[in-house]
């Protein structure tokens, strides 16, 4: 029987994390790396990836990076192949890269719709498909963690945000998670999703500036926003042996917003 420490230990495991240069992706990289996983980060900008790598290495974490655009098919293929070349195989895939766009539904540009959908769900499918086919299915082992959002669980309160493409894409991530979990369970691959509430980040800064932190916290049962540690435990549960019997689940990390 494994001890609790052993169940959460990721020594010898490998992880590819998209959108890993900052924010939630970097927080997840810290959690998995601190538990012993070898990390490859991906994002579009090399300078931000270099800074993230330096940050992780200062924590004693083995981290490399690959610059790639998760909305471009050719980049997704290259990312998967280069990550496999660096790591040998991929045990844990964290699909975190995402984009949003604010506009009233009646005026939402179709180009912006396509940009959000291509990165937030099409790219998630294509990368998961390639990593699954080339590494996880042949080895009969895998942990896929998709970063959805509470925006994928419901609409937006009137007068708050106008993000129909983002909400739609994250709703798709939720059911993609459930469907892939059911299909790939026979390969000993778990597929789960985190659904964060509001965390201060580059993506949410516009909403925070417009609505104000105090107003945002007022609608949260715990009266706080997410911080730099709040995703770590949940991500580690899904990535480790502690979560080996959990699949197809969506865990809201939102201070209770989705409960009311």
From TrEMBL:
Question: Which EC numbers characterise this protein's activity in its record?
Answer: 1.1.1.100
- Where is the Ketoreductase domain positioned along the sequence? 13-187
Enzyme class, one word?
Answer: oxidoreductase
What molecular function terms (GO) are annotated for this protein? Answer: 3-oxoacyl-[acyl-carrier-protein] reductase (NADPH) activity
Q: What InterPro entries has UniProt attached to this entry?
A: KR_dom, NAD(P)-bd_dom_sf, Sc_DH/Rdtase_CS, SDR_fam, Sec_Metab_Biosynth_SDR
What is the top-level taxon of the source organism? Bacteria
The entry's keywords: NADP, Oxidoreductase
PROSITE patterns referenced in this protein's UniProt entry, alphabetically: ADH_SHORT
Family statement drawn from the similarity comment of this UniProt entry: Belongs to the short-chain dehydrogenases/reductases (SDR) family.
Q: Matching NCBIfam families, A to Z?
A: PRK08213.1
This chain's protein is named: 3-oxoacyl-[acyl-carrier protein] reductase
Provenance organism: Cupriavidus basilensis
């Amino acid at each position: 029987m494994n001890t609790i420490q052993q169940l959460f230990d990721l020594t010898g495991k490998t992880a590819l994390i998209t959108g890993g240069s900052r924010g939630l992706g970097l927080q997840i990289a810290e959690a998995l790396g601190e538990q012993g996983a070898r990390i490859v980060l991906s994002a579009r900008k090399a300078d931000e990836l270099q800074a993230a790598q330096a940050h992780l290495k200062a924590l004693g974490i083995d981290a490399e990076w690959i610059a790639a655009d998760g909305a471009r098919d050719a980049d997704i293929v290259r990312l998967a192949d280069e990550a496999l070349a660096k790591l040998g195989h991929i045990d844990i895939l964290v699909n975190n890269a995402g984009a949003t766009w604010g506009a009233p539904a009646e005026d939402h540009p179709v180009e912006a719709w396509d940009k959000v959908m291509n990165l937030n769900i099409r790219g998630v499918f294509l990368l998961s498909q390639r990593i699954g086919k080339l590494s996880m299915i042949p080895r009969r082992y895998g942990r896929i963690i998709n970063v959805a959002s509470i925006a994928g669980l419901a609409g937006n309160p009137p007068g708050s945000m106008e993000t129909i493409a983002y909400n739609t894409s994250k709703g798709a991530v939720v059911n993609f998670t459930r469907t892939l979990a059911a299909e790939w369970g026979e390969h000993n691959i778990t597929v789960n999703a985190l659904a964060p509430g509001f965390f201060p980040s580059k993506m949410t800064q516009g909403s925070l500036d417009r609505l104000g932190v105090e107003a945002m916290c007022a609608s949260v049962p715990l009266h706080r926003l997410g911080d730099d540690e709040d995703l770590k435990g949940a991500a580690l549960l899904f990535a480790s042996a502690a979560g080996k019997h959990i699949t197809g689940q969506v865990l809201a990390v939102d201070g209770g917003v989705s409960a009311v």
